[in-house]
């Protein structure tokens, strides 16, 4: 039985994978080990070794890179000389990087990425306008921890709908439902935290959130809508402590004891917060927000547990105690 010859598409995919590996090798200042290449390409050792040999066949010759401190048997590979045509950013890539930079905190990483973008050709005016719309309709709620991968094809459909104010059909399976159902939605924005969420409305109903990993399919409808002039996405996001809305806004007062007061004072828990330092070294933070469940999750963080007191309101105290009772189920 003869082995199957690679089709044109298979050969093209292998070529793309090899060029992507070449870019990884050139982007790394110290070079990459075989193990690191396996992790970045999600391929076996034999496949990575074949890809390295293939780069030699393309005239791109990876060189051994020595790094002080490595074990004497460790081999790293580095590459120089990839043609500039392979390194040109596509409009979609530049657009994604610009959005990422605008949402990054100030610091060395943001400055460095900004310099790299400044060296490149800017987006066309038409694409730049779409870019601004997406930036205004996306919010990142920074949390360190597990994150879900987002399907690129789905994101492309959602971004086009967001910039064009187009209704979409969603096949959505809620976490508590056994099957997925179709619904029509008007995309209003994207929120990224531990999960990614689409914020959308239906007719005159208040906006709701759809977890991106639970959207099984999204289809453009060709029907367009006019967003409400008195509704602002960024303002809506800032009303909640986290992603979720729908509960009532509460005026919350938290007191952090002197052991963690300095750390708490360096953090912005919510845009509405006001802080007061007390003579005993404690810190009082007052804020008004929805999203009580996520606020309770934050107060249960190891940094604050045993070091923070909910002074008001009583309803939040009750919710917290109820949450503690539910957590006890994990140790029964």
From TrEMBL:
Protein name: WYL domain-containing protein
Pfam assignment, any one: WYL
Domain WYL: 159-218
InterPro entries documented for this protein: CBASS_pafABC_assoc_protein, WYL_dom
């Amino acid at each position: 039985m003869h082995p199957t010859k690679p089709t044109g598409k298979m050969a093209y995919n292998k070529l793309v994978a090899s060029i992507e590996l070449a870019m990884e090798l050139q982007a790394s200042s110290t070079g990459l080990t075989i193990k690191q290449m396996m992790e970045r390409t999600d391929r076996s050792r034999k496949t990575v070794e074949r890809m390295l040999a293939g780069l030699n066949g393309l005239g791109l010759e990876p060189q051994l890179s020595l790094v002080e401190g490595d074990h004497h048997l460790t081999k790293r590979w580095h590459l120089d000389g990839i043609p500039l045509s392979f390194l040109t950013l596509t409009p979609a890539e530049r657009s994604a990087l610009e959005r990422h930079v605008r949402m990054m905190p100030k610091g060395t990483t943001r400055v460095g990425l900004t310099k790299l973008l400044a060296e490149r050709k800017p987006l066309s005016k038409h694409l730049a306008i779409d870019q601004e719309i997406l930036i205004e309709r996306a919010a990142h709620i920074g949390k360190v921890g597990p994150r879900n991968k987002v399907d690129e094809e789905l994101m492309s459909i959602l971004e086009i709908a967001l910039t064009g104010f187009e209704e979409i059909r969603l096949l959505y399976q809620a976490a508590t439902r056994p099957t997925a159902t179709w619904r029509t939605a008007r995309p209003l924005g994207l929120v990224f935290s531990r999960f990614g969420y689409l914020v959308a409305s239906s007719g005159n109903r208040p906006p709701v959130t759809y977890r991106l990993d639970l959207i099984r399919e999204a289809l453009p409808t060709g029907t367009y809508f006019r967003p409400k002039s008195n509704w602002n996405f960024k303002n809506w996001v800032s009303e909640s402590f986290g992603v979720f809305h729908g509960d009532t806004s509460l005026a919350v007062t938290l007191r952090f004891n002197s052991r963690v007061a300095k750390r708490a004072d360096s953090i912005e828990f919510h845009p509405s917060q006001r802080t007061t330092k007390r003579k005993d070294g404690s810190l009082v933070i007052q804020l008004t927000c929805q999203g009580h469940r996520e606020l309770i999750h934050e107060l249960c963080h190891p940094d604050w547990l045993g070091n923070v007191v909910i002074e008001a309101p009583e309803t939040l105290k009750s919710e917290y105690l109820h949450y503690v009772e539910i957590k006890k189920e994990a140790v029964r």
